[in-house]
TrEMBL record:
GO terms for biological process: ribosome biogenesis. It comes from [Clostridium] ultunense Esp. Associates with the 50S ribosomal subunit. This is GTPase Der. The gene is der. SUPFAM superfamilies: P-loop containing nucleoside triphosphate hydrolases. Residues 4-168, 177-352 form the EngA-type G domain. The lineage of its organism: Bacteria, Bacillati, Bacillota, Tissierellia, Tissierellales.
Length: 438
């Protein structure tokens, strides 16, 4: 899980985000012709020749600018550079060397990292004369590509994987269940990891934000293999001042991205906060299994129905993850941590559950008979056929007559009917709708 990190840097509008999307294989970064569109670091898992790595896109660097947004972009990029194993320095092959390119080259030389000079926007196989002046940057031979056309990307990635450190892990283990422990600062995430391991593996203090990086810990529970990712607590944006803390947020979100299941820890002495809602929303939107762990339950003064009232409050405030099971624990004493592992097993099984096409269509047909699909202007929604196309999370492809007729409420109804038969506790269910003939 100690993946190599590849960072893309360069001045504005040289095609960094287009290259990022090309390598990842899907549109994640926003790409426009306007400089400065990418302000924050964007990250994703990428793969080339069965070697997996983490790819970071950064905003365009303007080292001499004193405006607030370019300054923030520079700070974000500097943090990404500091954590990278390989840096892709992207330049515009048609513009030639600019003073900003020279400034960035100076920054990269000081980093001491492996840097590959990438000349973008060369849409033909003929090398233009402008390319040769890039040797002046002292970054070695430029690698010629067109991110827009996809030219030269394979050669670039061949070179990238040659520079991965030997101690970094580039393989993907399907048997490992990747669990990200997420939540606000000082909610007890590190204490939970230490209790599971039975040792002081992670520093624990009462000072919020002690954990700055995402820390991976392998653990075997019975026959099940896990890697727990302890993460820095997410703060509200206005509470983030230091560069290190800015990167902690990125690492937390990255941990969610590369996890299978997220354990959302909530402070039992404080209840559900707005920040808990945002963290849970990010995990939900990214299709992660979710377990809600209410920590510090040993510190709570118990009254009649305290447990039920707290659970009701969670369901009210986190209604969009009503599928997530709730466990009340004490990370400090270890109370009910065994129950957490039982839930991890259940959620992992559900995350990988496949419903046969025949059974799925029986459920859909019964649902249609019980509750007729919506109609608009005399045209009624027709559902022709459904099949499961993915796991982690379970995803269903449904063929219909008209996509506009599939209201959110009816989609939720179909989801509830599927859950009625198969549960899918702890995991979101995703749908893709296609009109007949698409």
């Amino acid at each position: 899980m100690n993946r190599p990190v590849v960072c893309i840097v360069g001045r504005p509008n040289v095609g960094k985000s287009t290259l990022f999307n090309r390598i990842v294989g899907r549109r994640i970064a926003i790409t426009e012709d306007n400089p400065g569109v990418t302000r924050d670091r964007i990250y994703a898992e990428a793969e080339w020749l069965n070697k997996y790595f983490n790819l970071i896109d950064t905003g365009g660097l303007e080292p001499e600018s004193e405006e607030i947004i370019p300054i923030n972009i520079r700070q974000q990029a500097e943090i990404a550079i500091d954590t990278a194993d390989v840096i892709l320095f992207v330049v515009d092959g048609l513009d030639g060397v600019t003073s900003t390119d020279e400034d960035i080259a100076n920054i990269l030389r000081k980093s001491g990292k492996e840097v590959l000079l990438v000349c973008n926007k060369i849409d033909s196989h003929k090398t233009p004369d402008e390319i040769f002046e890039f040797y002046e940057l002292g970054m070695g031979s430029p690698i010629i590509i067109s991110a827009e056309q996809g030219l030269g990307i394979g050669d670039l990635l061949d070179e990238v994987i040659k520079h991965f450190p030997e101690h970094k892990d580039t393989e993907y283990d399907d048997e490992l269940v990747r669990v990200a422990v997420i939540g606000k600062p000082n909610v007890g995430k590190s204490s939970l990891i230490n209790n599971i391991l039975g040792e002081e593996r992670v520093i624990v203090t009462d000072i919020p934000g002690t954990t700055r990086d995402a820390i991976d810990t392998y653990f075997t529970y019975g026959e099940d293999k896990y890697v727990f990712i302890d993460t820095a607590g997410l703060r509200r944006k206005r509470s983030i001042y230091e560069n290190v803390e800015r990167y902690s947020v990125v690492r937390t979100l990255t941990a969610v991205d590369r996890s299978d299941i997220c354990v959302l820890m909530i402070d039992g002495t404080e209840g559900v906060s707005e920040q808990d809602t945002k963290i849970a929303g990010y995990a939900h939107e990214n299709g992660k299994g979710i377990i809600i762990a209410v920590n510090k339950w040993d510190l709570m003064e118990k009254e009649t129905n305290t447990h039920l009232n707290f659970e009701k409050d969670i369901r009210n405030k986190l209604g969009f993850i009503s599928y997530a099971p709730i466990v009340f624990i004490s990370a400090k004493t270890g109370r009910r941590v065994d129950k957490l592992f039982q839930l991890l097993k259940v959620v992992d099984n559900n995350n990988n559950l496949r419903v046969s096409t025949g059974v799925l269509n029986d459920i859909i047909n019964e649902a249609v008979l019980l509750n007729q699909p919506p109609s608009d202007k005399g045209v009624r929604l027709k559902i022709y056929y459904g099949t499961q196309i993915a796991v982690r999370p379970p995803k269903f492809l449904i063929f219909i007559n008209k996509r506009q007729l599939m209201h959110f409420s009816y989609r939720r109804y179909l989801e509830n009917q599927i859950r009625k038969y198969f549960g899918f506790d702890g995991v979101p269910i995703q749908f893709e709708f296609k009109e007949k003939g698409e």
